[in-house]
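Lab notebook, bench 4. Still working through the backlog of constructs that have no structural model yet. Next entry is a single chain of 55 residues. Request: give me the structure tokens for it.
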Amino acid sequence: MKEKNMYGKTVMGIERSTFIINEQGVLTHEFRKVKVSDHLEQVLEVLKPMDNVIH
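Model written out:
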């Protein structure tokens, strides 16, 4: 949660985030303040090298 300004009022809102965790349970990547428009491409670029590891 983070503070946001909506219509001149300060409110608590959600911050979009994505976390990539490997098979050993280790956090390998985190994306904060995600913009939906280009996020899929960012995540796929990270996952491509891991493709031979994912079962």
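Notes after review: Helices lie at 36-47. Residues 2-50 form one domain. Flag for follow-up if needed.
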